Amino acid sequence: MERTLRRAGQIVQGLGLGVLLFSAIVTMVQIESGARVFRYQGF
Amino acid sequence: MTPLLRTAGLAFLDGLIRPSLLAVSIAAVLCLGTIGLAALLIDATAMSGKDSALFALDPLDDYAFATSDALRLLHVPPQGRHVALIGTAAMREALTVGDDIAVRLSHRLDQTVPVIDFMSGGQSGIEMAALADSLGDDFEGVLVLGISFSRLAADNAELASLVREPRLAFASAAGDAEIRAAGFTPPPRSGLYLLDHYKFFVARYRAIVWHLLTGTRPVHQGRTYLGRAPASPAQWAADAAILSARLSHYQDRADSNLGALDRLIRRFPDRAKVRIVLLEIPLNPLARDTVIGPAFVEAHRARMEDFARRNGVFYWDLNQTAGLVPEDFQDWAHVNSIGGRDRWTADLIDRLGLLLSPPSRMP
Q1: Which has the least CB within 10 A, B64, B75, B224, B281?
Q2: Do B85 and B119 contact (CB within 8 A), yes or no?
Q3: For the segment B302-342, what is each residue's pLDDT rounded down to a tens digit?
Q4: TM segments (chain B) (predicted)?
């Protein structure tokens, strides 16, 4: 049971890291490319 | 806490915080898998499907909704006579929704004439060309293009940010031609939809994830000026200063900016099939008299009438006939009253009705 719980902890850690990694990559791409929702309100 | 529970808790915690190959592998697979899945699933079909609204940032994200509408038209071109309205928010705020115009027009003509609403905030010539292009080669009916003296005074340099940060997520030959005409290079196209338009999706990814998690979808809200309080003296003064500065370049830039309209008109050469209307946007009479000057407006009107005549298209300035008064406006161009919007819409429907009635007569 101890081994199973340790494995469960590793899986949760992996999922958390995965979400953080994805978010970090997309955020870096966003910053590097300057991508934004551009709402030009010109004349 | 029992020793067994404590041991179990410590084991879970150990797995949670101690670096492990399993955790790193799961993280890598999850991250790369999500990116791969996005590349596979986010394509023009998804962007034009029934759930396309989940890609919009919020209800005011005109260009996400316009992208979906354009991709639908590219997939299923419009059949039969349509009216397409393409222009800026000032044009849109003076009109009731497209479905209302379609019902009234269809009732008048005794036949269904759907309306394609491609009006969006701060629409540029690049976007106007791309949206018109999505109507396709077989488009039939009336193409109404919103224009203004302000558009004719626009500087190509203003388009730089729109080339760098495209607001529409579909490729268009006409849009690319406008980018080149403005002195810029269109973005490279790989053929992979998500890669070609990654900036569009990256800029919205938090909203997209939120919509996926909550199951919510923004509903497009196109008209936002109705009932809005009139501009404060400070806003009016700021707008007047910007407008005056911009119009000081009108004479230098008008011919060049009319070139963009000329290219768009030539995109639909068959006048028996496609009637083109250049529709002047609303102009607050107060701005006409105190900021722009009636003589300037008259000269602009004469220029547009001459341009329309030479190109075999119509130029309609409803400012002369719809009877809008300063109280109908939020600022110099955006209508905020129901009465003003109804008069402007009724005037346009009258003219479109005449244009679409066989045999069509020049209003």
Answers
A1: B75
A2: yes
A3: 999 999 999 999 999 999 999 999 999 999 999 999 999 99
A4: 20-42
Inter-chain contact A22–B161, Cβ cutoff 8 Å? no
Residues in chain A with CB shorter than 8 Å from the CB of B57 are 37
Q: Is residue B51 part of a domain?
A: no
- Amino acid, res. B233: P
Backbone angles phi, psi at B141, to 5 degrees: 135, -140
| Full DSSP string of B177-246 | HHHHHTT--PPP--S-HHHHTHHHHHTTHHHHHHHHHH-----------TTPPPPPHHHHHHHHHHHHHH
Tell me which chain A residues have a C-beta less than 8 angstroms from the C-beta of B221: none
Q: What is the pTM of this model?
A: 0.92
Q: Are the CB atoms for A38 and B162 separated by under 8 Å?
A: yes
Complex ipTM: 0.90
How far is Cα B268 from Cα A15, in angstroms, rounded to an integer?
A: 53
Please tell me whether residues B9 and B108 are part of one structural domain: no
Q: What is the β-pairing status of strands B81-87 and B115-119?
A: parallel
CA distances from A39 to B62, B73, B243 (A): 9, 24, 19
Length of chain B in residues, anyone?
A: 363
DSSP 3-state assignment of B43? coil
